Amino acid sequence: MKKVLVTGSGGFVGRHLVDLLKTDYEVIGTLFGEDLKDQENVSYHEGNIQDPKFLEDLINKYSPDFIVHLAARAISWDSDTEQIFNTNFLGTINLYKAVIANRNKNPDYNPKILYVSSAEIYGKTTAPDKINEHCPFFPVNFYAVSKVAGDRLSYQLSQSEKLNILIARPFNHTGPGQQKGFFVPDMASQIVEIENDPNGQSLKVGNLESIRDLSDVRDIVRAYKMLLEAETTPGEAVNVCSGKGQKMKDVLEKLLSFAKKEIKVEEDPERFYPVDIKLAVGDNSKLKSLTGWEPQIPLDQTLEDALDYWRDKP
């Protein structure tokens, strides 16, 4: 059974990815404070990707055939710039150095690495209604800038060090397990609070006019697995997205239609971002060409599952 190292395996996307991979692979996951137990074909290892020795020891021990690099500080408007760059950029350097160190001892070692970048790197790009992999980067927050750095570092080392790195650029995705700080869980968690509140508070919202390419996290991790298994060229980038735009107002209306009571909506100035991208829809033709991937989970199911996650939360 081939081995896959998943950094950030205790996060929202990581948990879904591990669940998908464990039937076909031995999964080695890194944790950073999450309390998860080993299971069949899955072993977890607590550590910080800012610690080079942690990653070097892990890769030396297991020599994974594949690596999926998910670990990151992923809140777009996180203001702790030092931690953003220490994790998202320097942590990525540490991972690649660990692979190179292992290869220096074992010259044939060259795992396929899926670096999970972000569509946030495109920012205020050209052609926002159909963003392809060649669109220029105009990032609008520190998180996106850190991801541009990691994205381009991945390309550089695929060329200068001949690392077998594929760059995935996921657009917005959501589903059960996503925590607050993103649109769907922010809305779903509020709806559940209001359902349980006899006083009838209103739901607080920010800008509902923006249009986003929104997928189910379970479709996204299936794309990651297919990309790992596909024939790809080191250094190339692939958008992972539905290819369809969803206005946030329409997404909220769908969520509200699943609520157990009628809910009043109220604008909250604190929920508006300093810079808001009006439109960001991806072109997924390259992903489809490489893997045959198609989204399978309809938006209604994604939203209902997200609501049920918050209803079931203790």
TrEMBL record:
SUPFAM superfamilies tied to this protein: NAD(P)-binding Rossmann-fold domains
All copies of domain NAD(P)-binding, residue ranges: 5-305
Signal sequence interval, chain numbering: none
Taxonomic superkingdom: Bacteria
One matching Pfam family: GDP_Man_Dehyd
InterPro entries given in the database record: NAD(P)-bd_dom, NAD(P)-bd_dom_sf
PANTHER family documented for this protein: DTDP-D-GLUCOSE 4,6-DEHYDRATASE-RELATED
The protein's name in its UniProt record: NAD(P)-binding domain-containing protein
